[in-house]
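Think of the structure tokens as a kind of shorthand, similar to the way a musician reads notation: each symbol stands for something richer, in this case the local conformation of the backbone. In the example below we present two proteins back to back. Begin with the first one, reading the sequence and then the tokens, and try to describe in your own words what changes along the chain.
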Amino acid sequence: MSETDQRLIAETEKWLQKAKDKRSLISLNDSNSKHEEMLQNIDNYISDCQHFLDKSMLIEAFEAAIWAWAWIEIMERLGIVGKEAENPPKTIHETSAIIIEDGDKVLMIKRGNNPEKGTWAIPGGHVDEGETYSEAAQREAQEEVGDIETEKEPIFGFNHKQGSEKRMPMIHWHYGKLFRGKVVGKISASSDASEMEWINKNEIKNLELAKWAQTVFEKLGYLD
């Protein structure tokens, strides 16, 4: 890797972290749908930046980081967003999620435990120390539903905020990667799930989804 590339990566990571930290401190001052879309654009730029870094697309990564920061600055100056809390925790969790499809249906689980007990999601969980995202996806898929084989390359990266809800009052962030999986044997719900069901893609928008699962399905276009 050239010295120029190394400097570009360092600069991109600096601005990406600044954007993540600032994003964790702000929330909308109103419920305007246009403003919600602008805030989602910031989240998308942050997610895209990390994805581009992972793919060594350095120019695109730097541009995404700068655009994320620029949109935050614009929204603050217009008074669209404000500080959500004086000293919110800024923990960043790394996660892997797995989407398993069969035609028009998606294999989904209903969470049996907190956080977000009773909501629907797809298999997924935290990346353990020393694991890659791909390894975590394979482990989580097997632990949660059984004989699943996951692809090595992610479909996309995503990030979302947990917190400021009655279910989960602590604010924290997740950066995750979505992988595709397929059934290769016997499947059954783990003890963490109260139900497991193949659900038609058109019906997903009618479910009470876990927040991170909603982010994934929005990015997949299943909630349109």
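Once you have a description of the first chain, move to the second and do the same.
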Amino acid sequence: MVKKFSILPIIGILNMDKFYVYFIFYHFFNKNLVHFKKKKQKGKLMAEEGEVEVQKKSGGKMMLVIIIVLILLILIGGGLAAFLLLSGDNEEVSSAPQQTQQTQMQRKKGISGRSTNLLTIGPMYPMDQFVVNLLSESGGRFLKTSLDIELENQEMSPEMDMKKPAIRDIIIRTLSSKTFEEIGTEKGKERLKDEIVEKINEILADGQVKNIFFTDFVVQ
């Protein structure tokens, strides 16, 4: 009688071995997977810490740069303000004489002609007598004259007193540069007045001479 051999126990053993293989493989894979995840998380944390550290360093550098820029701006602004203040003071000091000169030049340029208005006559400033030689071929002619100067206002008197020698010099040089023929006529005398008034006004700052009046005029 032939005995039948069953392979079920063998299949069972093979299935058991296969189960153990799967179990061991699963356990090994799961363990490595957990280890890999932990390592990955650790690396991520280190990267984040590194980024935070870099941000802190870069933030500190940026703050330092901002502080330096602010200090430079304050220094530059203060220096510029001081320069403007000092230059403004210097300009004011230096512009004062220039303004005086400009005022005088404007007065010279804006000198009006000799006034011929005899209805309203300003304050008079008398001058001492003049005796000068006239231009002539023989040199034997001379002029003796006295004159009063009409002022624009009474406030000019102190300046006229101070500049009286210069005014007399102007009048003497003007008179002695003329010939008898130039001043012997009425028109000649009027032109002489115009010239004297114009030259005197060139040296005055407080006002203008309006006219001059001859109170004595003798040619010999």
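Compare your description with these statements about the second chain. The CA atoms of residues 111 and 201 lie 8 Å apart.
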